[in-house]
Write a structure and sequence with these properties.
By secondary structure, this protein is α+β, with helices and mostly antiparallel strands. The chain has helices at 2-20, 24-55, 120-127, 132-140, 145-152, 174-188, 211-224, 254-262, 269-273, 325-339, and strands at residues 63-69, 72-85, 95-108, 111-116, 153-156, 159-160, 192-197, 200-205, 232-237, 246-251, 285-286, 289-290, 298-300, 307-313, 316-321, 352-355.
């Protein structure tokens, strides 16, 4: 009798567990955060890998996570058996035999779909100049003007930027870096904004009584050949200034930006000597001052630093230091810019579906 009672308790417990354990709602919050973190980390690793591949003359390949399907199942099973053996002899006990088995199974079987980012539209997006509106969005989001203009522009009103991947030292204009330094000073003081009005981008300079900031604004106008008493200027795409109220920005493409940032990667000396990579360029200085790289990516056979993102390529480790805030901001702005590119998932190669469970 006791065994029967025990069996009933076990069976009841299994049924209760399987009936009361709610999978969906309870898993939503945890899984949403987990997948968000994992997809974000994979995007950073893919971007870093492609920067390294460009430096090594390899072909960059981008794959988009199209869909994540999480599937859960919970199943319980109880089996029992018993036997009774009677005996006709007096004073001989009856024989009882019983067996009880139970199991509860929980399965998590996510399926992840990947789509290669390819096709003619995606290729054109990579090679098309970044719009002035994208620069406006980044500045309004609080990204430093000095970093944005160094990363995204070839020139501003004819003042030429440098190109780290294959520096054009003879074309680099020291006034370009004076301009972005001055622009950053005005931006930090909250006296500059670029807004889009009726599809037109307007740069505003706000008045101030601070002598130093007034001097910076006058220097800004002088370098760009702007009207000295102006407070609003049109910002357009182009290589040449049309009039004193116009700022012409010749922007780079996403592919230009990737190639430029790849030039800042610190590669092993042996790879330089054996011509496995595009040659490293000497340190650049402007007006006698060293020019800090936009993005510092380190390399080595191993590392024990706290990395923001790291990948392996041809037996070497490449990483971005988690304590290098300037490089982290530059890398994040690159990710934001790349997100503006239309991947055109309707073209290109087939999708790849991977059961991850």
């Amino acid at each position: 009798m006791k065994k029967i009672i025990k069996f009933c308790l076990i069976a009841t417990s299994l049924v209760s567990i399987s009936g009361c354990w709610r999978i969906g709602p309870d898993k939503l919050a945890a899984d949403r955060l987990s997948y968000t973190a994992i997809v974000g980390d994979s995007w950073k690793e893919q971007m870093l890998l492609n920067l390294v591949k460009i430096r090594y003359g390899d072909v960059p390949v981008f794959v988009d996570v199209q869909n994540v399907l999480a599937q859960y199942s919970l199943a319980g099973q109880v089996t029992m058996g018993g036997n009774f053996s009677g005996n006709s002899q007096p004073n001989t006990p009856h024989l009882w035999g019983s067996s009880i088995n139970g199991n509860l199974q929980y399965q998590d079987r996510p399926t992840i779909s990947f789509v290669p980012m390819s096709g003619s539209k995606f290729g054109k997006s990579l090679m098309s100049p970044v719009t002035v509106s994208a620069i406006t969005s980044l500045l309004q989001s609080g990204y430093p003007g000095k970093m944005i203009f160094r990363m995204i522009t070839h020139s501003i009103n004819g003042l030429d930027n440098m190109f780290a991947f294959k520096p054009r030292q003879d074309q680099m204009d020291a006034d370009f870096f004076r301009l972005v330094d001055t622009m950053t000073e005005i931006q930090r003081a909250g006296l500059m904004s670029i807004v889009s009005i009726n599809n037109k981008n307007i740069l505003h300079l706000l008045p101030t009584e601070d002598p130093g900031l007034n001097q910076a604004m006058n220097e800004f106008r002088r370098l760009l050949k702007l009207r000295p008493d102006g407070t609003e200027y049109r910002v357009v795409y182009g290589t040449e200034q049309g009039d004193p109220d116009e700022i012409a920005i010749f922007t780079r493409s996403i592919l230009d930006i990737l190639s430029d940032l790849a030039g800042y990667i610190e590669v092993p000396l042996e790879d330089n000597k054996l011509h496995r990579v595009f040659p490293s360029q000497p340190a650049t200085s402007v007006a006698g001052k060293p020019l800090a790289p936009l993005l510092r990516i380190h390399s080595g056979s191993s590392h024990d630093v706290d990395s923001f993102v790291s990948i392996s390529y041809h037996g070497q480790k490449f990483w971005l230091d988690n304590h290098d805030i300037d490089s982290k901001i530059a890398f994040s702005s690159l990710m934001f810019l790349f997100g503006l590119v239309d991947s055109d998932k309707g073209e290109g190669g087939p999708s790849l579906v991977i059961p991850a469970g």
